[in-house]
Amino acid sequence: MMDGLFAEHVTVRYGRRTVLDDLTAGPFPAGKVSALLGPNGSGKSTLLRAMAGLGEAAGRVMLGPDELSRMSLAQRTRRCLYLPQTLPATVHLQVLESLLAAQNATGVMPGGMGGDEIDAALRMLDIFGIADLAMRYMDELSGGQRQLVGLAQALGRHPDALLLDEPLSALDLHHQFAVMEVLRRETERRNIVTVMVLHDLNIAVRMTDYDVILREGKIIAAGPPCDVITSDTLRQTYDIVARVETCSRGLPHIMVDGLAPVSH
Amino acid sequence: MRVPDDVPVSAPAVPSSSDLSGYARQVRGSYRMLLRRRLGILVVIAVCIVASVVLDFCLGPSGLSVGALIHTLLHPHDVSAGQSVIVWQIRLPYALMAVCVGAALGLAGAEMQTVLANPLASPFTLGVSAAAAFGASLAIILQWRLPGVPDAWVVSADAFVFAIGSVLLLDMVSRRRNAGTGTVVLFGIALVFAFHALVSLLQFVANEDALQDLVFWTMGSLTRATWPKLGLLAVACVVVAPLSFRAAWKLTVLRMGEERAASLGVDVPRVRRGALLRVSILSALAVSFVGTIGFVGLVAPHIARRLLGEDHRFYLPGSMFVGALVMSLSSVAARNIMPGVVIPTGIVTALVGIPFFLAIVLRRQGLS
User: Fold this and answer.
1) A21 contacts A217 by C-beta, under 8 angstroms
2) What is the DSSP code (8-state) at residue B71?
3) What does the pLDDT average to over B146-162?
4) Positive or negative, the Cα torsion across A132, A134, A138, A143?
5) From A82, A119, A178, residue closest to B12, measured CB to CB
6) Which of B101-105, B186-190, B363-367 bottoms out in mean pLDDT, i.e. has the lowest?
7) What is the pLDDT of residue A264?
8) pLDDT tens by residue, B66-88
């Protein structure tokens, strides 16, 4: 149905600084979870934002046969949704309302009163196990709970491509795995493209299907996690000495031995 | 790559569909209740406004009885000219102006706080009032006037020009790339100090009479209300308010963060520009007609947020209503605290508004 998300010759400048220079990445496959890896400032968020159409970027972004980069912002964000790293703000707004607002963001009044919309919003909250928070105010929630609300807002918009900027940053261990499971399940069920920026390499190696490693705006490696996350690439990108070992259950596990001696 | 089943990973359990539909019914019910309660609150405030206007109209230093007032209202030609003037040229415009000014400042403050993402934003704190005061001082002290403006409008016109200029400056700053909301607020605060300094400079060179006029102007007073000014402000409110309400969803989403709003398809710079334009018209008109009464613009949004939450479908009209009510009550107080004296409304607004404001803000904090 869809061939995935493809960024071609993307160039992004912040003022005089060129963050991404003629970068081509993808295709990020549909129905699978992909990860963007790399050190701070390597251009991961910039690539996600460029694919979502936020900020100025040269180049072409394709979602299957459709060229996203030719669409209006409102149209484009319906198809391809970026979830920022910052958590939803602590506003005096109920969780349910915040979902309704996200759903109606580009609409005009009235709207958002219907029972169907409320049911759909509740289902999204339920997917992330927070249906019981529906009537609580956002400014009473913890950071992790707000992150889950943000994810529910995003999935509730039913995009064809979901771009998540560090979606696990505020979550405890249980919820990190739970959210990854939900995202894998929904990505497969809806056959959508899911790309996320991750810092936890062990989660990446075990729970994603396609990884891209960036450093200074260049792609170091791209492909299945086991091919991409290796001692060599880790040394190249993070300047660390690390091994990919196999644990007692036969699963890959990344062990970091220390910093690599400075070579450049 | 799949995680084997024996690894202890648990996704949140999805309750059976019947559980969820029962819960959904419950939530739907309580959400409806909430919406109804909010509508109820709006209605109660509206009723209070009407009551306050009636009170404002009936109480005052002239010593006319309520019966006489109503009689004058219904049969203006049956009574003495003096009595008719008191009712038609003083009481009525005064009482209605209070409502319009409060509504305009309440709505302006609410939109300003949302688009600048700052609870301190208001026409008062970001220099609109100060700019208007400077315009007024140019008119009062240096007799500077725009060509073609009738005498009765000179002070207001000058004040309006500077007030709207200050919002356009704020808008220009907010449009610059990389200008965070913090930058805009700091710029607004710089405007306040700059205009205060300029006003002080003019006061320094002013003669005694002009100085007195200016000081009185800056205290803010509803006694400047006239029918044409009232009409103009009312029309502005009626035209601008629906445009604000149309943007309610976008503004609600904007409250959750600028980047989030953009990623949901909201054209943030455009929404901000539209809001600032509306703010400039409402606040500049209100302030230029009645002087420095900006405090309502800061307080009304906070009160509305506490009473109604931040769903802008309720928050915007709420702030507008609360502004109108606070202003109208201040107007009542201004004429009745000291018998025979009308205290400038700007002074009373702050004195009446602050306890109200603190009570609501502190009570919420105590709870949460």
Assistant:
1) yes
2) H
3) 82
4) positive
5) A178
6) B363-367
7) 53
8) 777 778 878 877 778 877 888 88
Q: Are B282 and B237 in contact (CB under 8 A)?
A: yes
pLDDT digits (tens, 9 = 90+) for A11-37: 888 878 888 888 888 789 988 999 998
Q: Where are the alpha helices (DSSP H) in A61-108?
A: 73-79, 95-103
Distances from the Cα of B98 to the Cα of B55, B93, B222, B307, B337, angstroms: 12, 8, 7, 22, 17
Give the confidence band of A234 by pLDDT, cuts at 50, 70, 90. Answer: confident
- Kindly state the percentage of chain A with pLDDT values over 70: 94
**What is the rounded distance in angstroms from the CA atom of residue A55 to the CA atom of residue A243?**
38
A174 reaches B (C-beta below 8 A): yes
> What is the interface pTM, i.e. ipTM, of the complex?
0.86
Q: Are A207 and A33 in contact (CB under 8 A)?
A: yes
Contact call for B260 and A52, based on CB within 8 A: no
**B258: buried, middle or exposed (CB in 10 Å: 19+, 13-18, 0-12)?**
buried
Q: Token digits for A197? A: 């920026």
**Alpha carbons A152 and A98: distance in angstroms, whole number:** 10
> How is residue A70 written in tokens?
């030719």
CA distance linking residue B238 with residue B242, whole number of Å: 7
Q: What is the pLDDT of residues B290-348, one digit of tens each?
A: 887 767 888 899 889 888 989 999 999 999 999 999 999 888 888 888 777 778 888 88
Residues 124-153 of B with CB under 8 A from A: none
The closest of B141, B103, B116, B15 to B285, measured between CA atoms, is: B103
Decide if B346 contacts B291 (C-beta within 8 A): yes
Q: Are A75 and B213 in contact (CB under 8 A)?
A: no
Nearest-CB residue to B248 (from A93, A109, A113): A109
Q: Summarize pLDDT for B17-51 with one digit per residue, the tens.
A: 556 778 888 888 888 899 999 999 999 999 999 99
Mean pLDDT across chain B:
83
Tokens describing residue A231: 């001692």
Question: Does A168 contact B at CB distance below 8 Å?
Answer: no
Inspect the interface and report whether the beta carbons of A182 and B266 lie closer than 8 Å.
no
ω before A110 within 30° of 0 (cis)?
A: yes
Q: Residue A165: which of A177, A150, A152 has the closest Cα? A: A150
Residue B108: count other Cβ atoms within 10 Å of its Cβ: 37
What backbone phi and psi angles, to 5 degrees, belong to B220? Answer: 75, 120
Residue B241 pLDDT greater than 60, yes or no:
yes
Mutation for B interface: A17, A51, A73, most B CBs within 10 A: A73
- Whether the upstream peptide bond of residue B317 has omega within 30° of 0, thus cis, is no
How crowded is the C-beta side of B170, counted as CA atoms within 13 Å? 35
